[in-house]
Amino acid sequence: MLKEPGALEGLVLLLVDDDSEIREVFAEELEFLGAQVIAAADSAAALAAVQSQALIDIVISDLRMPRGDGLSLWRQLKAQSSGQIPAFVIITGYSGLSTEEADREGIARIFEKPLDWPNFTEFLIDLRIKRSSMS
């Protein structure tokens, strides 16, 4: 079931992908669903966004990027965190990362491109509920 506009209201998402078209399309879709989206083209821009933004709920990152991959970004976020770490979701067209490895790393989930938007949106909603019940 496709979610209604506003289904992601109140979520602050950091979207990291080196492909500008993917960033634009994904950001538009997520904003249509009510999320506030901060877009970054690479790991350095993502780290800067995390440092300057008071609260990011979920980081959605491509796995393979020319200037720093998603897994390295996740590890840097964990190492630099002095407080609550945002949930981390990987989107990829070329996985190479097993579900078991993602679980060990503390990554919330891996999604293959092209995304199944209803499933992806439902996961984000469930993740928000899960994280809010933990705080």
CATH architecture heading: 3-Layer(aba) Sandwich
Sequence of strands across the biggest β-sheet? 2-1-3-4-5
What's the pLDDT, averaged over the residues? Answer: 90
Topology, number of strands = 5
Number of helices: 5
Structure commentary:
The chain is of the alpha/beta class. It has a single domain, classed as Rossmann fold. Helix content is 44%, strand content 19%. The protein contains 5 helices and 5 strands, in the order βαβαβαβαβα. The chain has helices at 20-32, 43-52, 70-80, 99-105, 117-134, and strands spanning 12-16, 36-40, 58-62, 87-92, 109-112. Strands 2-1-3-4-5 form a 5-stranded parallel beta sheet, sandwiched between helices. Helix 2 runs parallel beside helix 3. The termini are far apart. 29% of the residues are buried. The model has no long low-confidence stretch (mean pLDDT 90).
